[in-house]
């Protein structure tokens, strides 16, 4: 679709305005904009991870986020270097997005180029866990099932991965995980206490402050750019492990060292979600 969108004077208070399609596209969030499929396209494989939901922030959440950013915006590189950032993410063989906006011409709703088939119950996928820090990273862990409770979190993550990093770095290790229910169980708290692992205080509803979110985005882009994309769960698991191992450490280090600017941005928007 080319050209411009024209607004009738009676619809704009008597003013004639035109706005280019490029301008409208830039104003629409990339996560929800999907271009029409080419006419000669027969197979489309979409690799997606569970999108980060920007849940509503209460004034208390904003205050807590702002306080956290004030405490950490002046941290030096060596202070960020002792933090192990961790998170889980789900990758699937089909798109997980349920709100998709498509630019189309009038009376073309049922045109084949504007119809996208999707699984309403979600596609097959895997749940992964990883940890990053300056100069290092954990191995990528892939859960056998896509649901994790406190017991599995202790047995599959804290004991084999976090405790290993604690033994290598000593008491200076600062462990970061979010406020997911499986992370805050009594068993997890007791295990961290028994191993003398210090947990970083983390504000609620703050996935945008977690550096590893950009790593998940990088993995998704690398999967989509593969010449021979995985078509089965086994191939997806192998591809994720390969891309995780091949990810440049410089990328991870650059993301972690940008935490100061990220804190400043959060303070600039008064604790609201960071626009990125």
From TrEMBL:
Q: Where do the segments described as Disordered lie?
A: 1-22
Name of the protein in question: Transposable element Tcb2 transposase
Indicate the segments forming the Tc1-like transposase DDE domain, all copies: 82-226
| Pfam families in UniProt | DDE_3
Q: Organism classification, top ranks? A: Eukaryota, Metazoa, Ecdysozoa, Arthropoda, Chelicerata
Q: Which InterPro entries match?
A: RNaseH_sf, Tc1-like_DDE_dom, Transposase_5
| GO function terms (MF aspect) | nucleic acid binding
**Would you say which domain of life the source belongs to?**
Eukaryota
* Species annotation: Trichonephila clavipes
Q: Where is the composition biased (Basic and acidic residues)?
A: 8-22
